Amino acid sequence: MSEGKLTRTDLFSMAIGQIIGVGVMTMTGIAIGFTGRSVNLAYIVAGILTIVSAIPQIYIGGTANFLGGQYSQIAVLGNKTLAGIFIYIQVAITLALSMYTISFSDYFLALFPGANVKLVSFVVLTVLVGMHLTGVKQAARLQNLMCAILALGIASYIVFGIGHIQPGYMQMPGFLTGGIGGFALASIYLTFAAGGATYVVNFSAEAENPTKDIPMVIIVSTAAVVLVYAVMATIAAGVLPVEQVANQPLSVSAQSFMPQAVYTFFVVGGAMFALLTTLNFNIGMLIYPIKTASQDGWLPSGLAAVNRRFGTPHWILLAIYLISVLPILFGLDLNTIANSTVILTTCVRGVIGLVALSLPKRMPQMWEKSAFFVNSGKLKIICGIAILLAAISVALLLVTTSAVQIIGNCCILGISIVLALLLRNKVHVSASYTEK
């Protein structure tokens, strides 16, 4: 890129923006319903589980710079068919982008009644895609700014709420209300709020020092956000009786201690910028796997073309833009389809754990030189734990997800498998990785 590569700070900002989403505003209350005021400890455990689950990704990302992110990792360390299935699932994820813009517009409408929802959605998506068209560095600078505003929203909740926590926080019956089982369920459930940093690996091609920076960013960003979430959860569960905040959004507790103007900023502004940072990240996250897959033959090769001025894949960005903007302009509801990739994306964590087992066989010299090298026994144990945690998360989703969305996941998976099997003989997977 003419504007330069992504620094560690840029990657950290990208990861933070991806982890922090509006989900935390609803997930915290649900977790309180599982375990009461011990929700803060559940967040800490969730953070530990999330980092442990990310270790196989750290092993891979710390060994080589995979230019197509997770697609290249699966292609090189797994097999061609599995990589094809992965990339078609990624294409389906593109449908979720319109959901972010429409949700943003709904919040905007609450702040400015009478605003044109379609126009707001169109402008937001156009600006963000335009930033990526001019270079990932520009998108990273915008992400830094949006994360700063998002941080102000979160800080307002903490600053105004910390002094309103009632005494006897850890006393029964409000603490560990669901017993050990409820606490475990809350901890596993909250991994969905704590996760997301591993996707920063898809920016490997644009990072200054990917094999060193990306593993550090995954660990530090996850730990930092989880600690902030734990403090927010302490406030959410501590300012009002547990029964009043269980299964309720954070706005319920916020309204009890925030001045109206600050409350509006937290609920509307904080949520809006959480959506924007996640949307901005996801646009960038999709580019590099799709670009590499196009070069390999899974998608039309012309998509991988880059423009002369900015060096960005304009056709991929145009495709992402059209897939996202057309539902907005024509009023199509793609939320069900967009939400129907949640189980599949959780499965990817297990797939990464599985392919990481191939590091000693597929990349023996580079693996031995890796700063994260462990012997085969430890590698199997860590990857096995990561696969098990992914399986438990999928089981939890199967129990809590609607039948329609489960069917949606199955349909997307089925279509992806069929396409991968039909095209695999025409695809030539390139060794799209470098040592640094």
Automatic annotation (TrEMBL):
Coiled coil: none annotated. This is APC family permease. GO terms for cellular component: plasma membrane. The chain crosses the membrane at residues 12-35, 41-60, 81-102, 108-133, 145-163, 175-202, 214-240, 260-281, 315-332, 338-359, 379-400, 406-423. It is found in: Cell membrane. GO terms for molecular function: transmembrane transporter activity. It is a multi-pass membrane protein. It comes from the Bacteria. It comes from Candidatus Enterocloster faecavium. The keyword Amino-acid biosynthesis does not apply. Keywords: Cell membrane, Membrane, Transmembrane, Transmembrane helix. Pfam families: AA_permease_2.
